[in-house]
Amino acid sequence: MDAGSAALSPDDRFHQRLTGESARTNSASRTLAVLSAFDQSRAVLGVSEVASHARVPKSTAHRLLAVLIDHGYVKRDGNRYRLDEHVFELGSRALRPQGLRERAVPFMAELHHQTLETVHLAVLHDGHVLYLEKIFGHRAPPCPTVVGGRNPAHSTALGKAILSQSAPDAVARVVTGELARLTTHTITNREALCRSLDRARDEGVALDLEESRLGLACVAAPIVDSHTGEAVAALSISSPTSRFDERRLAARLRKVADALSRICS
């Protein structure tokens, strides 16, 4: 303890320590807010945009961006900023369950080869589906999904497939939460969503008929842990509504999801 600190009363030293901890917490919160400004719809930003989305002064945004650049989390292109590869590396390590993506990719490639449609792998995270992998080809329609991106679980076949085999508390958090309307076909009624989950549980697949994007339809099947009986992830096949063949795609998907469930359990 230095002489200055020794001269302080116990109450003053406690307040000094608390103030210092508060400042560090506030700085960490602002740094995370700056990182969070780069969501999937805002991949490249100027410092003013970062400041606005993170709700911090422009000078603070500039200072924190410099720190993040030094540590490899952000890169600068002229007067614009984007996330650096180090963020993806950390995100990849955080994906659960471990090894799922590596096991799933060969099955996904086979599904794409058989159907020539877009194939997704996703997990449930905070009421959203988090995309772990995406395989698509030349004839695939525009599909607003990216690896590492998210969509509300209630509006996607992937989310409903996972929820159909999830614990009641996980289902309740989604069903009783905000059911945002992404298109005119999005299910925003709680009773209707529960009926959709019941159907998915009975049939082994869930559907998204233009609920997340007009012109796109999707069928998904859960990947289930045989020890718990709960879904750990889901696979989906997406196609334009005009050529969507639910029966054909669902049959292929169930087979692959069942095989992955056995491997991952």
Enter the CATH topology name of the largest domain: Beta-Lactamase
Structural class: alpha+beta
Order of helices and strands: HHEHHEEHHEEEHHHEEEH
- The CATH superfamily of the largest domain appears as GAF domain
Q: Quaternary arrangement of the chains shown?
A: single chain
The largest β sheet comes out as: 6 strands, antiparallel
What amount of the residues lies in strands?
15-25%
Average pLDDT, rounded to a whole number, is 85
Cα-atom radius of gyration: 23 Å
Shape: globular
Question: How many beta-strand runs?
Answer: 9
Taking the alpha carbons of the first and last residues, their distance comes to: 55 Å
Residue ranges: pLDDT <50 for 5 or more in a row? Answer: 1-6
Kindly provide the name of the CATH class of the largest domain.
Alpha Beta
InterPro entries: GAF-like_dom_sf (IPR029016), HTH_MetabolicPath_Reg (IPR050707), Tscrpt_reg_IclR_C (IPR014757), Tscrpt_reg_IclR_N (IPR005471), WH-like_DNA-bd_sf (IPR036388), WH_DNA-bd_sf (IPR036390)
Protein name: IclR family transcriptional regulator
Keywords: DNA-binding, Transcription, Transcription regulation
